[in-house]
Amino acid sequence: MMHREPIWRAVPALARDPLAALERLGAANDGAIVRLDVGPVRPLLLTSADHVQLVLRERSSQYVRDGMLWKPLRRLEGDGIASDGPSWQRSRNLLQPIFTARAVRGVLDAMADAIVAAVAELEADGRAGRPVELVEGMTRVVFRALIRAFFADRIPSGEAGVLGAAISTAFGALGWRIALPFAPDWLPVPGDQRFRRAVRQIDDIVYPHVQRVRGDGGGDGDILSLLVAARDENGAALTDRQVRDDVVSMFVAGTEATALTLSWLWMALDAHPDVAARVVEEVDAVVGDAAPAPEHLDRLVYTRQVLQETMRLWPAGWIVPRTAAEPDVIDGVPIRAGATVLVSPYVMHRLPTAWPDPHRFDPDRFGPAAPRRHRYAFLPFGGGPHQCLGNHLFTAEAQLVVAAVLSRHRPELVGSGPLVARATAALRPRQPGRFVLHRR
């Protein structure tokens, strides 16, 4: 079944507030495929978990990462894990063993130490009258942790700061390319020069470390060392370029998604003091006077539920476009080759049929007594073969950040607005405010 949203209604609504427009269409057409008539490009929005499963899993080879969003990102992240086809499959096969829940445990001690140190710096900034903007502060904490996970202690703080700024600049400079995904590469658009400068900075830092690890013939168990040492079924290693592409891809995804999710979490706790009190109670009971550590994670059950509910309402990856590589039919609806198919976690996570009272912030939706739901009704990490490999690392890192903040501090948001999102390449809060930590 298909609903056609005419151009005279689709274009003004999407221009005014794309998130509200898509959510309205999802709720009104729950289960139907919605064709958005927005000019020459007529994307198809999926509103059924069965259809999402079909596109992301069962027919994933027919719906590829190309065009909208993916083509601009490839300029930064290359042809590894962020791409499709044989190069993606090779990276996926080599990266998967490195990012299992058990393998990730090997880098969590170093990450926990980095998180505690970064949180202490945020507290010092607040005491000195220099409170940081919420997303910026979470980005600093997350980035410090990822630097340790990927590079151990090889990168000094100054160089790490340059790398972080360059990755942020490069990603931000892609805004026009993401908004105009079909613009040819030869056509200059705003941000291109900033993008090229930032990529040169990234490469000037990452490549020497890749070559150094390869020359040393070993490593410290960090992700870069494991990636350099990995071999495919023929015994072949990744090239320096492939290692660089995969490291940058994982860094961009890990930094942006984790920092934004944590920012939304602090805003949600600020708006729901009853939930915040339960999280503090759990952190006190589990962590106590100790520093947060990997062995605490399995017992931070409610904290994990709060993270899941945060990702339900405000998924960083709010839109997952796919391009039909060949003609197809879904539920009687013909899909032409080249058509853009939209999977929106933001829409799927707010469908009233799957999530009663969908706007209510309720972490108990993910508690042990919660009813079972369709596997593809909740997809903060995507789904199918392209599901985010870093989900275990993300969850552990986010829990450690929450525990590091709440075990010793009382967070305060200054100048924060309501829980309203704006749709960029990722889902960002409109008015996050500044983040101040007070010693408990």
Automatic annotation (TrEMBL):
Cofactor: heme
A family per Pfam: p450
UniProtKB keywords: Heme, Iron, Metal-binding, Monooxygenase, Oxidoreductase
Stored PROSITE patterns: CYTOCHROME_P450
Name under which the protein is recorded: Cytochrome P450
Molecular function terms from GO: heme binding; iron ion binding; monooxygenase activity; oxidoreductase activity, acting on paired donors, with incorporation or reduction of molecular oxygen
Lineage: Bacteria, Bacillati, Actinomycetota, Actinomycetes, Micromonosporales
Binding site for heme: C388
